[in-house]
Specification:
- By secondary structure, the chain is of the alpha/beta class.
- The strands form nine sheets. A ten-stranded mixed sheet has the order 10-5-6-11-9-8-7-14-15-16, with helices on both faces. Strands 23, 26, 27, 28, 29 and 30 form a six-stranded mixed sheet that branches. It has a two-stranded antiparallel sheet with strand order 1-4.
- Helix 6 packs across helix 9 and helix 40 packs antiparallel against helix 42.
């Protein structure tokens, strides 16, 4: 049975879901910018799932371990040699080994026997078979702490998707935002200490900040060791959370030393691995600083490089995956970082550049890296074999003898191709300006590659910005993206703005706001729904929203969870903001509303693609949105406790004081329900910070204008549910804000009503008792217009002032209490007197007032809500208690049999009514704080009684049991256990407890006397006590010690602590609670009880009979729109001043100044070091320039001398040497030289090493060896000719001379035109020679005939126009649109044209695009067009003996009303549906074939258009 047959087993269903296709090679389609779209829900990403499963570092749970043990052997294989063939080589110990490298005993038992393979040579494809892997699990490095990693042994033929599934699903790794492939020398090499430190710091910085995976060879040597030590140093210097860097080592299993310890068929959890460098010999140890190991097994031992193909496939597969980050889906970018290295490293760099992977070369690391770095800035024409040979002789001095002439040619060719792709090549030079860090160099390399990548429209810039957001590198975005090269429109930034918000990247949000994003345009209804859909699952607000949705589902009896809408959010916000606010997002009347259409990734469009921008804008025009989108974003950020994000948004808000107070309220309410103590502390700290912001803004406003500042307190804020700043502060219990001097001044003004606050209290009382004194100017009024007015205005202004109402209610209440006391003590008759009836009437007025307070609902909250608010107030509870007790006493009093109990109950009611006086004293600045202290101490007494009860009950029970036998009277039991024990604390010690003062007459011997306690235990003779006096005395002493000394002093200490703690804040607390009293009397009817019944009657008539609405007595003021707008603008202006003042204070802070100075010193020291490096570079640059000048002078003198010798003026004997050999050499490094931008003199695409559509490799041909005239003895190209079975006419497949002699070159050969546009071409050995030179391949390749293969490429263009028909210009030049097509089974766009079949006038591909009836008309268009190119086309299919020659004709439609253009568009619409055709804006970044872009360049030059 074949090995491949054994491999082709069906994957489990779980893997099939992840890997729908089976195959070793991933898809080779290049990336498309259309793949980068917004993802509808972040919770569905695999990264979030795996993150939730991920434990602290690497512990493996029992369930995960069982899944891993069952999954890995089923899906991952290893390789074993099944046939032992003795090798000519021996092991390191001199023992006989197999051709696979393993000893005989290391084979399977059957492998050493001669089975069916007997007598045959060892063949890896037949004699190595796959079987389930036996090495996987956790790896722990012995002697290096508890560091644990993951490892697995895999077959070299393992599909990359299986490995990726293992890493992301079973190992719990998050998909990377970036893949860093580090390659280079596999042996230890020496780096400069400074360069080594820069490399290590930069590598781990870019990995840590971007969430990248680092992939290396995994061994403890060379560049892998450098990477491991970099990660180790970073982890040691950072916290556990910050120090998680994924470092994956992909090594060859057969070269790992001590790998036997990793073999465990059921998995090693963990497997102990010993790192032993001394005894490893030719093998290598794994590096202990890598976190994951993939050990590639091909069944051999000691052969390096086995892992390279699988590593390449895995990296390519990962780079083709889509990563969801912050609501944006991007392809995972990959970058190759090169240090030092040998021939294998050069191949890696070449393959990376060929595949479009950017490479960062670290100059100064040695060997290959330095060779490429030193020639990277040279023009390609100056990179020749001699230069490369010299570089290798210097940098590879130890192994230079191993380089053959063929190898030098190959290296030269590869280095030329590498340098030619400058957009993918970045050289990191220590000290280079703007590139001091490796992390910046890596990210700049990716951006440079992306910027130079072909793209349509804005796709390239969008891609770069999404990468920057995914990596959270705002510094790179500022320096590389938001430059003058591209004009960003605010609408273009909306999708990435949403991504930055969701992924909590405040620096990017700030950047986008700086770039012109307007939050009012950005926030739409659908945007808000999308943002709330993507709340973090760990957020408390998210769980509260889920509860609301569940309740709605239960209420509607539906089985499906309802979709989140903004009215659901509003319900939760109503709970957090309090009942004083109305719903911020009212429920829509219709059941369903249109939502944001989230695009699905990976959609191909046949016409002009719809971009992310247009999809995002789609919802803006159809939604009636809330009035304040800045408020909505602020709430969204605050409920997730995102401090920096909320601060940025708050700085944009207009109603900033109300916003800050609302945020404080929301955070405090969330902190009450948050279970995580750290999050609770953060929320409370942030709430306090917002309270300080509100205080700061209000302070600045109050200093500027007291009256306008106080208007801000009572202004009704429509944006925050029609509440006020003062009400929000009270709801949030922001005592610091309420106790602010400006707020207190406002409350004082309200307290005095229309009276002047300068009036003395005695004057108010005097005028209250003798109101005619109001007309004697004894009382002054605040409003001047009331001073000269008459009697009624004075009386109304005076008696409606809250302070006067308060004083009259005090007078009334004291009168009530005096009358109540008189009745209880003096005039309590069986039949109530008129005084007692007056008390009942008085109480009835009090009950009516309490009822009015309960039912007063100007905001329409409902009776239930008002009742709950009423009950929350302590004094209201006391009022209800007093009234209920009074009613109970009155009921008993009216019944003759219960007259006396009624009087007792009424007496208790009197006590409660007296306690109600404390509420009156809260207005006093002296007594008010003391009442607060008493209330706090009452709580201390309540908890103290629990401790005291333990000692009282324990001592009382013990004393009662010792002294008295079987006391059955319950009342005397209570007296003995509790009452007497309690009195003992205060010194009333029972006389009988020690027997000295015992008197038999004071007790009842048998307990029969109800007025005496039962006597203690006595003898029967002389009635003396017989209980153990010593024990009772000891118990009494201990009891008094703990209660009198310990507990009472503890209570005093608690009181003292409470007093000191409250005393510091009593002023704030009193000022805060003062508002309740002021608001109560501000809205209270002016008449005191019992005259208040007249006011109640008036209210009853107005509301019940006249149906007038309730008047608002709350401290609210509805402003006109113009006045409100002016007030908010003024507030916003002062908020900006406040923020600037805060920034200045932070800068002046001593700690901040020290940090700034330290940072500047570090920067200065670094600049000094860099300056030294730059000076050295400047000297080298000047020396190089001097060498250039000397070289040019020497050439000029040599030419002059040769001219003189040619004319016979001198003989050549006395000619002096013209300078040293160094002066005659070309300059090697040009620090100022710019890359050569002109067209290369020789064909380039035709010399790509890998021939397209095959596995054939061309012979390497450097630029200098391209012309046939240049001697190239080594040139030995392979031959390749494809067999086109679908072509009716094609030249012979073989290169036999007999078949080739039948071909007629340089003429018409039947229907085949073999004439070249470049004239006659040479024919050698029956094969024509490419007129442009060598290509490295003989035969005709994929072309259908030898010699020229003619093609036709029409370039159809029109002017790009605005909607009004005007031509769009760029850089003062008109812009073109060109017709391009994408053919089936191709991912590359091309011009509509191609090869001409023999005898045809139109290419077959062009016929696919056009309908048949339009072919003649298009031929007429071609005849009318302008020929822009006729000749050789640099095509990857060209060979030494077959090449493409084309005619490019420009067909331009100058008018938008051109009939032929409209007809062409109509025929294009009816073409093959598998084709993609579009009019595309013409510029140099259009994603077409390279040779087609050269034709477009010529057309744009012909028409004078922008390119």
């Amino acid at each position: 049975m074949s090995v491949r047959g054994r491999c082709a087993k069906v994957l489990p269903s779980e893997l099939n879901k992840v890997c729908p296709e089976r195959g070793d090679e991933p898809a080779t389609h290049p990336r498309k910018m259309s793949d980068f779209e917004v993802v509808p829900n972040l919770q569905q990403s695999s990264s979030s799932v795996s993150r939730s499963r991920r434990k602290a570092h690497f512990p493996t749970g029992s369930n995960e371990k069982e899944n891993l043990i069952s999954w890995i052997p089923e899906n991952i294989r290893k390789k074993e040699c099944t046939y032992f063939v003795e090798s000519s080589q021996t092991s390191d110990s001199g023992r006989i080994v197999c051709e696979c490298g393993y000893l005989r005993e290391q084979h399977l038992d059957d492998a050493a026997k001669p089975p069916i393979f007997l007598g045959k040579e060892w063949d890896p494809s037949r004699h190595i078979q796959e079987m389930p892997t036996d090495a996987f699990g956790d790896i722990r490095f012995t002697g290096l702490g508890q560091k644990t990693g993951k490892y697995v042994r895999v077959s070299s033929d393992t599909p990359p998707r299986v490995i990726y599934h293992l890493m992301t699903q079973h190992w719990g790794l998050d998909a990377p935002n970036l893949l860093i492939s580090v390659t280079g020398g596999a042996k230890n090499f020496i780096m400069k200490p400074r360069l080594r430190n820069i490399f290590r710091q930069g590598l781990v910085k870019v990995a840590q900040t971007t969430g990248a995976w680092i992939i290396t060879g995994g061994s403890h040597a060379g560049v892998m060791k450098q990477v491991g030590e970099a990660v180790r140093d970073f982890i040691l210097s950072c916290s556990h959370k910050e120090g998680e860097i994924v470092t994956i080592g992909i090594a060859t299993w057969g070269t790992v030393y001590n790998r036997e310890s990793l073999v465990c068929p059921m998995g090693g959890f963990p497997a102990e691995y010993v790192l032993d460098e001394e005894n490893q010999g030719s093998l290598s140890c794994l590096d202990s600083n890598h976190s994951h190991f993939i050990l590639v097994d091909d069944g051999t031992h000691g052969r390096y490089g086995v892992e390279i193909p699988l590593r390449t496939r895995l990296e390519k597969f990962i780079s083709e995956q889509t990563k969801v980050k912050g609501g944006v889906a991007i392809k995972i970018p990959i970058v190759c970082v090169v240090l030092e290295g040998g021939p294998g490293t050069l191949d890696t760099i070449y393959n990376a550049i060929t595949n479009g992977i950017p490479c960062v070369i670290v100059e100064g690391s040695g060997r290959v890296a330095d060779v490429i770095a030193q020639v990277a800035n040279l023009p390609v024409a100056r990179i020749n074999i001699a230069l490369i040979q010299k570089k290798l002789s210097i940098l590879f001095h130890d192994t230079y003898e191993l380089f053959t002439e063929r190898k030098l040619v190959e290296w030269t060719k590869k280095i030329q191709d590498i340098v030619r792709s400058r957009q993918l090549l970045t050289i990191f030079r220590e000290g280079k300006y703007g590139q001091q860090d490796v992390d910046v160099a890596i990210l700049q390399a990716l951006f440079k590659a992306s910027r130079n990548q072909d793209h349509f429209g804005h796709e390239n810039w969008d891609h770069q910005l999404k990468l920057a957001v995914a990596w959270n590198r705002v510094d790179i975005a500022r320096s590389e993206i938001f430059t003058d090269d591209h004009d960003w429109k605010p609408a273009d930034l909306h999708p990435v703005m949403a991504a930055a918000l969701i992924s909590n990247k405040p620096e990017f949000v700030k950047l986008f706001l700086e770039q012109g994003v307007c939050l009012k345009d950005f926030v739409t209804w659908d945007t808000l729904v999308y943002l709330y859909d993507n709340l973090a699952p760990s957020c408390l607000f998210h769980s509260k929203l889920q509860k609301v949705l569940l309740e709605e589902r239960e209420h509607t009896a539906g089985s499906k969870m309802p979709r989140l809408q903004m009215h659901h959010v509003s319900q939760v916000l109503r709970e957090l903001l309090g009942c004083s606010t109305q719903l911020l997002y009212p429920k829509p009347k219709h059941t369903e509303r249109p939502r944001l259409s989230i695009p699905v990734p990976h959609i191909k469009l046949n016409v002009q693609g719809s971009s992310l921008r247009s999809l995002y804008k789609r919802s803006a025009g159809r939604v009636t949105f809330t009035m304040d989108p800045i408020r909505d974003l602020l709430i969204w950020a605050v409920v997730q406790n995102r401090k920096e994000l909320a601060e940025i948004i708050w700085a944009q808000s207009q109603d900033c004081m109300a916003a800050a107070l609302a945020c404080s309220k929301i955070l405090k309410e969330l902190a009450k329900e948050e279970e995580d103590t750290d999050t609770t502390d953060d929320m409370l700290a942030l709430a306090e910070e917002y309270e300080h912001k509100a205080i700061g803004v209000f302070t600045d406003c109050y200093r500027k204008d007291e009256e306008r500042a106080q208007k801000l307190l009572t202004r009704v804020s429509e944006a925050w549910g029609k509440t006020t700043c003062l009400q929000l502060a009270l709801e949030a219990k922001n005592m610091n804000f309420v106790s602010h001097g400006g707020v207190q001044a406002f409350l004082t003004k309200v307290w005095w009503g229309k009276l002047s606050v300068d009036n003395s209290l005695w004057r108010v009382i005097t005028c209250m008792l003798f109101f005619p004194l109001l007309y004697t100017n004894l009382i002054t009024f605040r409003e001047k217009r009331l001073q000269p007015m008459g009697c009624l205005a004075h009386l109304r202004a005076f008696f409606t002032a809250p302070i006067v109402i308060f004083l009259m209610n005090i007078l009334s209440y004291f009168t009530f209490l005096l009358l109540f006391a008189y009745v209880l003590m003096v005039d309590f008759q069986p039949m109530p007197s008129w005084r007692e009836y007056l008390i009942y009437f008085w109480l009835f007025s009090l009950v009516c007032e309490e009822t009015r307070q309960l039912l007063y609902d100007p905001d329409g909250l409902g009776v239930v809500k008002m009742a709950s608010l009423y009950i929350k107030d302590f004094w209201n509870k006391l009022d209800i208690c007093a009234i209920l007790v009074f009613i109970a006493g009155l009921t008993c009093r009216l019944i003759p049999s219960t007259l006396y109990p009624g009087r007792i109950i009424l007496s208790l009611a009197f006590i409660i009514f007296c306690l109600r006086l404390m509420h009156i004293f809260t207005v006093s600045k002296t007594l008010g704080p003391k009442i607060i202290i008493v209330k706090r101490m009452m709580k201390d007494v309540f908890f103290f009684l629990f401790l005291l009860a333990v000692w009282v009950v324990s001592f009382g029970v013990a004393k009662q049991a010792i002294l008295i036998h079987n006391e059955e009277r319950v009342e005397w039991l209570f007296r003995g256990v509790v009452y007497h024990s309690y009195l003992t604390i205060f010194g009333q010690i029972p006389s009988y407890i020690d027997g000295v003062n015992f008197n038999i007459d004071q007790c009842s011997p048998n307990g029969t006397d109800p007025y005496k306690p039962k006597c203690p235990e006595t003898n029967a003779d002389n009635k003396e006590p017989i209980f153990p006096e010593w024990l009772t005395v000891i118990l009494l002493c201990l009891y008094l010690l703990f209660t009198n000394i310990l507990l009472l002093n503890l209570l005093i200490a608690m009181f003292n602590y409470t007093f000191q703690q409250v005393q510091e804040h009593t002023d704030k607390i009193w000022k805060f609670q003062r508002h309740d009293l002021i608001q109560e009397y501000h809205g209270r009817p002016p008449a005191p009880p019992p005259l208040i019944l007249l006011n109640h009657l008036q209210l009853l008539v107005q509301r019940g009979l006249l149906h007038r609405p309730a008047t608002h007595h709350k401290l609210k003021e509805k402003l006109e729109k113009n006045e409100e707008a002016a007030l908010l603008s003024w507030e916003m202006y002062l908020k900006e001043n406040y923020l600037q003042h805060q920034q200045c204070q932070e800068k002046q802070n001593s700690e901040q100044m020290i940090r700034d100075i330290a940072q500047r010193v570090d920067v200065l020291a670094e600049l000094l070091d860099l300056d030294q490096v730059k000076r050295t570079g400047l000297v080298e640059q000047r020396l190089g320039s001097l060498e250039d000048q000397v070289h040019q002078s020497a050439q000029a003198l040599r030419w002059m001398m040769q001219a003189l010798r040619g004319n016979g003026f001198s003989s050549g004997e006395d000619v002096p040497a013209m300078g040293s050999s160094k002066a005659l050499e070309a300059k090697e490094i040009d620090l100022k030289g710019k890359p050569e931008e002109s067209r290369p003199p020789y064909h380039v695409l035709a010399r790509n090493l890998l021939y397209p559509g095959s596995h054939t490799l061309r012979f390497p041909v450097p630029d200098e060896k391209v012309p046939w005239e240049v001697d190239f003895p080594l040139y030995d190209p392979p031959a390749y000719s494809a067999d086109h079975k679908d072509m009716a006419v094609q030249d012979p497949f073989s290169l036999s001379l007999e078949s080739l002699l039948k071909i007629n070159y340089n003429t018409m050969d039947g229907l085949i035109d073999r004439q070249s546009f470049h004239g006659l071409y040479a024919v050698q050995d029956g094969l024509p020679l490419n007129p442009m030179g060598r290509t490295g391949l003989r035969g005709r390749g994929r072309l259908h005939c030898f010699g020229p293969n003619h093609a036709l490429h029409p370039v159809v263009t029109r002017w790009r126009r605005n909607l009004d028909g005007s031509i769009i210009r760029k850089s003062l030049k008109k812009t073109l649109e060109v017709l391009v097509a994408q053919y089936p089974l191709s991912d590359v766009w091309a011009l509509p044209g191609g090869s001409l079949e023999p005898g045809e006038t139109l290419p077959l591909k062009l016929k696919w695009i056009l309908r048949r009836e339009f072919w003649p008309q298009f031929q007429n268009l071609l005849k009318q067009g302008t020929e822009v190119h006729r000749g050789y086309l640099d095509d990857p299919r060209n060979t030494d003996n077959a090449w493409v020659e084309t005619v490019a004709i420009s067909v331009h439609f100058d008018s938008q009303n051109n009939v032929e253009m409209k007809r062409l568009n109509s025929f294009l619409q009816g073409c093959d549906p598998e084709l993609c055709i579009r009019w595309q804006v013409l510029d140099k970044r259009i994603p077409l074939h390279t040779n087609h872009k050269e034709l477009l360049h010529k057309v744009s030059a012909l028409l004078g258009a922008y390119y």
